[in-house]
Amino acid sequence: TVKGTHKSDFAIYDNFLHTQVSKEKMIENRMNEALKNNEFIVYLQPKIDLSSRKIVGAEALVRWRFPSGQILSPNDFIPIFEKNGFVTDLDFYVYEKTLSTLQKWLLQGNPEIIISINVSGIHLNEANFLDRFLGLLEKYNIPPRLIELEITESIFFKELDRLVLIINSFRQKGFLISIDDFGSGYSSLNMLKTLPIDILKLDREFFMWNEMGVQDKIVISGIISLAKGLGLKVVSEGVETEEQVEFLLESSCDMAQGYLFYKPMPVEEFEKLLDIKSI
Ligand code: C2E
Ligand code: MG
Ligand code: MG
Ligand code: MG
């Protein structure tokens, strides 16, 4: 035992661990059934062009709706599924739902819209990921240029050479590639100049302060100008205030995603918002 720690502290910690463990067990026990029951649902969060304030795309974000109606956020289950491998089944379910929705829209003659999906780092080590994904695009007749693959930066910190090859193979097929959550973890500026990507998504952590300090602003506008100089488009995540929008416009940021504009919403709500004809 650690000196100076009361026994009761351990009791509280044990209890905390126990709660975490049983929650994780519950999630693992129910995941297969939940997939069959259609408990996983896809929400869409609009992406806004900052100068015109028009919706230029959307990100597909999964939710878990329990039979009780309770909704679980992906941060509560994606990390568990990345550990036990279930993330592949879940993601392909999400991709299939998303692509079939997009197909419906295209068949009804709606204007084209770019949809982003999240690609777990796990998939980059799966030899058949790209082929399987291309199979889905063929099934739903979706041109790759309408799909943006968001890859989280935390997996970028090693094996940069191999990653360049993988990303290039995606890009050759015509997908847009973005680096997600940039600045939150292991981001390096070297990565920015080496990776063959199209879009940089600035992590929401940069915008978690109600009032941004001078230092924050210097860092954010520095990253934006660096990215723009390298020919990338920049999206800011988690934009919640007009003050942030004003600053981002001054800093030449292209797009934003955040509660100030829209929260992630069910597909039907998104269709209403954009006046999308659907069958
Ligand atoms: P992400 O890809 O970085 O997605 C952005 C997250 O920020 C979303 O959280 C979104 O709801 C949230 N957000 C957007 N604007 C604001 C804002 O103004 N304020 C605040 N407080 N939050 C905002 P969400 O939906 O909980 O997703 C969390 C993460 O889970 C995602 O982060 C992504 O990494 C992962 N994820 C979500 N869906 C999937 C999926 O289908 N597959 C995989 N592999 N991962 C997913
Ligand atoms: Mg994302
Ligand atoms: Mg992100
Ligand atoms: Mg994130």
Automatic annotation (TrEMBL):
Residues 24-278 form the EAL domain. This is EAL domain-containing protein. It comes from Variimorphobacter saccharofermentans.
